[in-house]
Specification:
Blueprint lengths: L5 E9 L4 E9 L1 H6 L3 H4 L5 E2 L6 E3 L14 H15 L10 E5 L1 H4 L3 H18 L7 H4 E3 L2 H16 L18 E5 L3 E6 L3 H6 L5 E6 L5 E12 L3 H15 L6 E4 L7 E3 L14 E4 L3 H8 L31 E5 H7 L12 H12 L3 H8 L4 H24 L17 H10 L5 E3 L2 E2 L2 E2 L2 H11 L14 E4 L10 E2 L28 H29 L3 H18 L16 H10 L60 E4 L2 E4 L10 H4 L20 H4 L1
Parallel strand pairs: 1-5, 5-6, 7-14, 11-13, 14-15
Antiparallel strand pairs: 1-2, 2-3, 2-4, 7-8, 8-10, 9-10, 9-18, 12-13, 16-17, 18-19, 20-21
Helix pairs in contact: 7-16, 10-14, 11-14, 18-19
Length: 700
């Protein structure tokens, strides 16, 4: 029964250089509520993942633009098989799967994008049982702004900026962190501006709606922007084109200050020997300062800015207050600072230290560098070739483009923060304006985590029934769901009729693995216990009443008690209450006396028959229905007791010498208090069908 309290999610990050599978797990919201502390109730769902739950394949999915039919069996199936090895079989159908493509796919023509996404959805639906109800929502090419927002969610989720604002006060009431991401083809930024800038640029912000475990809404106003073509690989291509333009078309050797000294490559980055070739060749000079100068124009700082202020390429971005906006950088920001240039024990980014390491590395002869990486992974040589360019590009984007202070050279803004917040930030290493990261508390910082956090939050019921605003994000419009709102992709529903938002979750079973199978097991256990108890009681009764004298003495005592409860008149029965006492039935069965278990009711005379017809009896079981024309089964209104039919009995009843013709109606012997208000079947010509069993959601 283990593992049934968990929910799972699968997301495929289809980037420009490859596709990476991410699997996440979190506790079912109803079960998480049972043992949640007050602090946890005000937090987002807690997601978990493991390194072995991830897998990356190369190249990028965009390489199948001309052959979409091959993307499934030749590419995706390997990732699917890995997911099936991790997620329990009985959870597959309830596990959502997403494939979200980023910059690599954005560069493809729209027609190819559509063909690929449709083929991927068709293949996943046909070959897996994962939950994929909406192709457009689950399989899509996401915008760069969306990718940045997901990354912002993931960063603040892992750092605790959402759950513990008091521990993350950066000053001026600000407690969230900014997010920077750079891949192969694009770069993103996402941050919450300070209050002044937020009011000034309200129309430029995204309204993000989350939901904490207790169902309370949590709203954030975030600015996001993307620069397509500003990823490290795309920027390198632009740089090579500029080099070609710088030299004459007849030149076969192009000096490249962004390559280590003596390194010779083709324009595509392939190593070449010192042999004659007609193809243009790049020759490394290892001049890093010159490299910085030649990569600077790629920032597009000279592009016109239509909406001030702007950063890269004329893109509008609200002014960044680095007193309170502390950024973390992932992907290339991490790999480029901690690959060949990272030192042991580095916890924070220091510009002066970093630039010195880059210069020392890039000025080396290529043969010396290669001797140090021989025997290591094959792609290490490729990374070493590109390291100097990527370092220059990152430095320019970070400091010349975005404006992050050069820590170690320029003065660092000091925020007016509390002592507790200062100590917490120092422990995390995120007090400075910029910090490259790969993992936080052992979990990889990836925008995919942000997407799944949003999905998990969407499964939590709202605290108030009046809260109809969904989980997701869209334009910054207060009090309404904007037309461009992107939903979390998940929904909530109460289980067992319990509405979590009204704090009725306390009625949920205390078993962490509560589900339908558990109920059956418990029912079987209780049934078995009751059966054995019944056998013990029956054995005792048989032993006690094995002698006739004992039975008769007990019967005599019970019979005397029975008479005290009977109404006076007519042989111990009321004129209008012809039913025997339930104790009669018990004693008759127990002691062997027999009587008829039904009586005929007068239709005329006495006036009692029309007052004691059977009333409507609703059934909880809709397996049977009862129709007014008699064509349906009558079990829908059955009380659970079959009414015996009279056979060989006349249709006349004699009472005080008065003969009245009656229909042959049978009546169960019920106690008097159950007769009131009941009507006979004959008196109900338009009997209603049993209502269908509806869920709590249907009733709403």
């Amino acid at each position: 029964m283990g593992g049934k309290k968990w929910r799972w999610g699968v997301i495929l990050d289809a980037g420009s250089s490859g596709t990476r599978l991410h699997i996440y797990r979190w506790k079912d919201p109803e079960k998480a509520l049972k043992d949640a502390s007050p602090e946890e109730l005000q937090s987002l769902p807690r997601l978990m993942t493991e390194k072995k739950w991830t897998k990356k394949i190369r190249p990028g999915v965009s390489t199948f633009g001309d052959a979409p039919s091959k993307v499934g069996p030749a590419y995706l199936q390997d990732l699917i098989d890995h997911a099936l090895d991790v997620i329990p079989q009985n959870k597959i159908k309830d596990t959502p799967i997403f494939l979200m493509a980023t910059a690599g796919m954005r560069l493809l023509p729209k027609k190819q994008q559509t063909a690929l996404t449709q083929e991927i959805c068709y293949y996943l639906r046909k070959n897996t049982d994962f939950s994929l109800p909406d192709c457009d929502l689950h399989i899509q090419v996401i915008e760069g702004e969306t990718e940045g927002l997901y990354g912002w969610i993931a960063s603040n989720y892992l750092l605790g900026g959402f759950d513990n604002p008091d521990k993350h006060q950066h000053g001026k009431g600000h407690h969230t962190y900014g997010f920077l991401d750079m891949g192969g083809a694009s770069a993103q930024i996402a941050f919450a501006p300070n209050s002044t800038e937020a009011a000034k640029h309200a129309d430029d912000l995204k309204l993000l709606r989350l939901r904490t475990l207790d169902g309370s809404p949590a709203e954030y106003k975030v600015f996001t922007a993307t620069w397509l073509g500003f990823g490290a690989n795309q920027a390198r291509e632009s740089y090579i084109h500029n080099l070609e333009d710088l030299y004459s078309e007849s030149a076969t050797e192009l000096p490249d200050p962004c390559l280590p000294r003596g390194l010779r490559t083709t324009l595509d980055g392939e190593l070449v020997q010192r042999s004659k070739t007609r193809k243009p060749t790049l020759i490394g000079t290892g001049a890093f300062d010159e490299c910085l100068k030649q990569t600077y124009p790629l920032l597009g700082k000279d592009k016109p800015c239509e909406d001030n202020p702007c950063l890269l390429n004329g893109q509008h971005v609200p002014a960044i207050d680095f007193d309170v906006n502390h950024f973390i950088g992932v992907s290339e920001y991490w790999h480029t600072t901690h690959g060949f240039f990272g030192g042991k024990g580095d916890t924070a980014y220091d510009f002066a230290t970093y630039q010195k390491r880059v210069k020392d590395f890039c000025s080396q002869d290529w043969n010396a560098i290669r001797s140090k990486i021989d025997g290591r992974r094959a792609h290490d040589a490729k990374n070493a070739q590109e390291a100097c360019f990527k370092a220059s590009w990152l430095i320019n984007v970070l400091h010349e483009g975005i404006g992050v202070p050069r820590i170690g050279i320029e003065p660092v803004p000091t925020a007016n923060v509390s002592k507790g917040a200062l100590e917490h930030a120092k422990q995390k290493g995120f007090l400075e304006p910029f910090q490259p990261v790969d993992k936080i508390d052992g979990i990889e910082v990836s925008w995919t985590l942000g997407k799944m956090v949003l999905y998990a939050a969407g499964q939590i019921p709202p605290k108030s029934r009046d809260d109809t605003y969904p989980v997701g994000f869209g334009s910054n419009l207060a009090g309404v769901t904007p037309p461009d709102f992107q939903f979390a992709g998940s929904s909530w529903k109460p289980v067992g009729g319990h509405y979590l938002g009204n704090q009725t979750h306390g009625h949920i079973d205390d078993d962490d693995d509560w589900d339908a199978e558990d109920i059956l097991d418990k029912a079987k256990s209780k049934s078995a216990s009751g059966f054995f108890a019944f056998l013990l009681i029956l054995a005792f009764l048989l032993y006690f009443f094995r002698k006739r004298d004992r039975r008769m003495r007990v019967y005599s005592r019970i019979n005397s008690l029975v008479r005290k409860f009977r109404r006076p008149g007519g042989n111990g029965r009321g004129k209008n209450f012809p039913l025997r006492s339930p104790l009669d039935t018990i004693t008759n069965k127990l002691f062997g006396r027999t009587t008829l278990s039904y009586e005929r009711l007068m239709e005329e005379g006495g006036g009692g028959a029309d007052r004691f017809e059977l009333g409507e009896v609703e059934s909880d079981d809709n397996e049977y229905s009862d129709s007014s024309d008699g064509s349906g089964s009558r079990f829908g209104h059955s009380s659970g007791l079959a009414t015996p039919k009279l056979g060989g009995m006349g249709g006349m009843y004699h009472d005080r010498n008065l003969l009245s013709r009656t229909e042959s109606r049978e009546r169960l012997m019920l106690p008097p208090h159950l007769q009131v208000g009941r009507r006979s079947r004959a008196g109900s010509p338009t009997r209603m069908k049993s209502p269908l069993v509806t869920s709590p959601l249907d009733e709403r």
